[in-house]
Write a structure and sequence with these properties.
- With 287 residues, this protein is α/β, with parallel strands linked by helices.
- It has a single domain, classed as 3-Layer(aba) Sandwich (Rossmann fold), CATH 3.40.50.300.
- It contains 11 helices and 11 strands.
- The two termini are 14 Å apart.
- Bound molecules: adenosine-5'-triphosphate and magnesium ion (MG).
- The site of magnesium ion has 5 residues, from helix 1.
């Protein structure tokens, strides 16, 4: 089971969109996939509640309120149990009220709005650091919940939960947009992560473009320029010892991507782009 976290402290670059579509893509290719929404904004959780028609996805909604929340089986409840545990026993059984089956190969752990508490630093960061590792260990040892990949949709800020996710992910995906903030943002973010996550686990990091602008099937000159700037910054970080790659496989800016999240199936019109990304992911993770 390999952890993949999508991160960028810049908001709105497409973390949630890319995470969900990649997960759907991998699940349709036969991989067993778990997606965890770790963002208190709950974008992904709210998105999966919507059906293509815009109507609420009743079954999920009912499960969320009556099983997940009412039975204290949210990710925050798990974190609280872990934080308060004594004697090394993490008492949080993994079951069908914690993980929701979106489809045979695609399972989901939603977010809760109370995750905002994490910003108040109510949890001890050092202790919480190993929470995700412990949780994944539990999941791995529970019958019926075995996965090839676990995707984490991370918030645009850095919380104790992000700390825990990033300390034990095998791959960190950084989507950037073709704009003036991309290259500066990458540099600041890598430095910020290295400073905050101690000891630095030296994970594989991959940077690629989302919302790439195309003209007649090719990247526009402006998009090319911003991407080249981003690659220069990543090259510097690589020389500095960071295991960072830049992937030329990109996702174009397309308005119909919004409809693709609540849809039941992976949208075919995006297949070639996600195939490129997925190939890179599997290559890095099999090293
Ligand atoms: N390739 C794309 N083409 C067009 N629109 C896109 C694309 N990717 C994402 N978007 C849109 O950009 C907006 C932000 O996307 P998303 O919520 O995935 O970003 P995010 O990085 O997760 O944001 P946050 O930082 O708030 O978590 C959404 O409206 C989404 O539909
Ligand atoms: Mg998001």
């Amino acid at each position: 089971m390999k952890g993949i976290a999508t991160v960028n402290f810049k908001g709105g670059v497409g973390k949630t969109t890319v995470t969900w579509l990649l997960a759907k893509y991998a699940a349709e290719k036969g991989k067993k996939v778990l997606v965890v929404d770790t963002d208190a904004q709950m974008s992904l959780t709210l998105a999966v509640q919507l059906q293509e028609s815009g109507a609420m996805y009743g079954e999920f909604e009912n499960w969320y309120e009556n099983q997940h929340r009412r039975r204290n089986k949210t990710i925050l409840n798990a974190l609280e149990k872990y934080d308060r545990m004594e004697g090394g026993h993490f008492d949080f059984p993994i079951d069908a009220s914690f993980i929701y089956p979106m489809g045979e190969n695609l399972h989901f752990i939603p977010s809760v709005v109370d995750l905002y508490w994490l910003e108040l630093e109510v949890f001890d960061r050092e202790k919480v650091k190993h929470f995700i590792r412990a949780l994944l260990g539990k999941i791995e040892h529970t019958r019926g919940f075995n996965y090839d990949y676990v995707f984490f949709d991370c918030p645009p800020n850095f919380t104790a939960l992000s700390y825990s996710v990033l300390s034990c992910s095998s791959l960190i995906l950084i989507p950037v947009n073709p704009d003036v903030f991309a290259s500066r943002g990458i540099g600041l973010m890598i430095d910020g992560l290295r400073y905050r996550i101690q000891p630095w686990p030296n994970p594989n990091i991959a940077v690629f473009m989302n919302k790439a602008k195309l003209y007649r099937g090719n990247l526009t000159r402006e998009t090319e320029r911003y991407w080249t700037e981003s690659k220069v910054v990543c090259d510097e970080k690589r020389r500095d010892g960071v295991l960072i790659e830049t992937w030329d496989s990109f996702i174009p800016e397309r308005v119909d991507i919004k409809r693709a999240i609540p849809g039941r199936y992976f949208p075919r019109e995006f297949e070639e782009y996600f195939a490129g990304l997925w190939q890179n992911i599997e290559r890095v993770l099999s090293q």
